[in-house]
Amino acid sequence: MPLDVVPLVQVPAGRLELRDARTGTSRTVVLEPFRLGVTPVTAAEHGAIEAHGAARAGEGGAHGAVRAGGSGEHPRRDGAGAVVVSAVVEVSTVVEVVEVVEVVEVVQVGHVVKVGAENDAGVPAHPVTWFEAVQWCNAASAAAGLRPAYDVVGRRVTWDVASDGYRLPTEAEWEWACRAGTTGPTHGDLADVAWTAADDVEGPQPVARKRPNALGLHDTLGNVWEWCWDHADTARYGDYRSLRGGGWADESWSCRASVRRGSAPDAVIEDVGFRVARGAVGRAGADAAQGWSAAADRERADVRGPLPVGWTPLREPSA
Question: What pTM was estimated for this model as a whole?
Answer without folding.
Answer: 0.84
